[in-house]
Amino acid sequence: MGKHFGVTRSAVVVMACMWTLLAFGAEQPVAKLTASDGIVGFESFGDAVALDGNTIVVGDETASTGQCQGPCQQGAAYVFVKPAGGWHNMTQTAKLTPSDGQSLDTFGASVAIRGDTIAVGAPCHPHSAGRCRGAVYLFVKPASGWADMTETAQLLASDDHDSVGFDLGWSVAINDTGDTVFGDALGWPGQSCSAGNIYVFVKPAGGWTSTTQTAELTASDSQCNNVLGATISASGDTLVAGAFGWPGGVSQGASYVFVKPATGWSTATETAELTVSDGLPGDDFGYSVSLAGNTLAAGAPTVTVGGNSQQGAEYILLKPASGWVNSSSFAARITAATGQARDTFGGASALSGSRLAVGAAGASGLMGAAYEYTKPLSGWQTTSRYNLKLTDPAAQRPAFFGGTLALQGNVLVVGADLEKPNGAAYVYGGK
Q1: Going along 305-385, which residue ranges are E strands?
Q2: Which end of the chain, C or N, has fewer beta carbons within 10 A?
Q3: pTM value?
Q4: 23 pLDDT exceeds 50?
Q5: CA separation, residue 412 to residues 27, 31, 87, 100, 334 (Å)
């Protein structure tokens, strides 16, 4: 015991910490990303972030643009391409906006990127009489590279209309090959029910064009206030959707797994429903989810830890050898040793390979924090020991640092959408 291939356990811990510091560039970011056109006091830049390769996308659902000036919340998404010399403080390479944008659309509330395709959710477009139908906008990179542009295609739900309001685009995801886009309709089936539903859009043979869904994914035990899909994550042929309101607003929480059939996506209910055996009402399990291969990280930001209300926890769930099945088992429960009440640890999750990042945007009076963990050689284990704790470089309160996360390889992006004057996103590693 205490050794692995002739290396002591303490040495493994030291090496893991050293590797993390090298990967992230210690506790300071290599870059601060901001928008060049923010209106002071009216922006929430960083309330959604996504990363793929050398490109980062940052959403700002309250951005003003075009004919919409002032605090109108039309929204925008900003694209940042890594310079040849590496990441550094910069403003956007390109700004993405909708061709039919309106005030209060909340375009940019969710973002995803895979290869040359970016998906942006606008859950309140169009809106009428207090109802938000929602839309997902797709942007395909031009041959000359990313530049200011409007959408290539708009994806809509065929069964929604102004008197209902599904909030399509509350969350978005793109599969590994970039040919399938998922959009959550948090308000489905409308009329303030919020059971939640996932719309699947498959790329036509001729390329992306404006269209409606190929399939719909729902929960077999769907109830109002489950909020299925408030957060979603895709990996391979699998989609995971969190439902932190399950069951019926009790907010114990669940996560639903949908696996693509051999014949392709079709309207269906879940392959498996995942809960945790120690879950309690009010835990909000599934508030955040991140799927990487056969491993799922799911946050429960309002779990009580050591008597600290809403300190939060993160759960690791593993796919069985025979495939995903209904289960309440988990491989590990991860917390922060220095956590406090109302940290909301687990409010954001990002998993990539053997590395896990967890957001705790409520920490230090909403200044926020993000924690990094590395999977031990023996596999994920219950722990409160983290490798690295990151806090808002501007030391502002509130900043909501860690409210959104994106992780790929040795690059971590952390959103801080309440940081003055207009919000920010920070890049760690990948210099």
Answers
A1: 313-318, 332-334, 348-352, 355-360, 369-374
A2: N
A3: 0.92
A4: no
A5: 12, 11, 12, 33, 19
